[in-house]
Design brief:
This protein has 8 helices and 5 strands. By secondary structure, it is of the alpha/beta class. α1 packs across α8, α2 packs across α3 and α3 packs across α4. The protein is globular, with a radius of gyration of 16 Å. Strands 2-3-1-4-5 form a 5-stranded parallel sheet, sandwiched between helices. The two termini are about 20 Å apart. It has one domain: Rossmann fold, CATH 3.40.50.300. About 60% of the residues lie in helices and about 10% in strands.
């Protein structure tokens, strides 16, 4: 199995869950935003300010494909799995998992965060609209959906359970 791509709204817990999940599975963890920052030699905020959101979204597309042959857990950025192309690539290379966390929880985690350009420059209502606009795309572009906003170990346990179900389906299919 290829990488496990964690997706969801900003503040849903992708990085926190990702680190714990990778530890539980004894595999590598990659935070996609950090990876892009390292590759570009500048922060996400600087990328947005200098080259704009579209440029950054193109970097995400390249990165999903580039990391496709990597085993482990990848925490995508909040907008990475919104493009249909990215959803298809994530499904082709691995397993995209949507961490479905309530808006109020996400908002409390991200409000005023200067490192999140969209969160920092948007009102609560704008973010709420964005959250609901994105939610269906996360579901559409994922194979697995788990509830967030519960203790991290519960989310990790649920992801592992769902991944094992997929593995068992694949094994059964291969045996036929």
């Amino acid at each position: 199995m290829g990488p496990i791509y964690l997706c969801g709204f900003m503040g849903c817990g992708k990085s926190t869950v990702g680190r714990r999940l990778a530890s539980s599975l004894k595999c590598s963890f990659t935070d996609m935003d950090s990876y892009i920052e390292k590759e570009e030699g500048r922060s996400i905020r600087e990328i947005f300010e200098t080259d704009g959101e579209e440029y950054f979204r193109n970097l995400e597309t390249e990165t999903i494909k580039k990391l496709g042959n990597k085993k482990g857990v990848i925490a995508t950025g909040g907008g990475a799995l919104l493009r249909a192309e990215n959803g298809r690539a994530a499904k082709k290379f691995g397993v995209p998992v949507f961490i479905d966390t309530k808006f109020s929880i996400c908002y409390n985690r991200i409000k005023g965060d200067k490192n999140r350009p969209l969160a920092y420059n948007s009102t609560r209502e704008e973010l709420k609209r964005l959250y609901y606009k994105r939610k269906n795309l996360y579901k559409k572009n994922s194979i697995i959906t788990v509830s967030g906003g519960v203790p991290v170990y519960v989310v990790v346990k649920e992801i592992i359970k769902e991944i094992n179900k997929l593995d068992n389906k694949e094994k059964t299919k291969d045996e036929k």
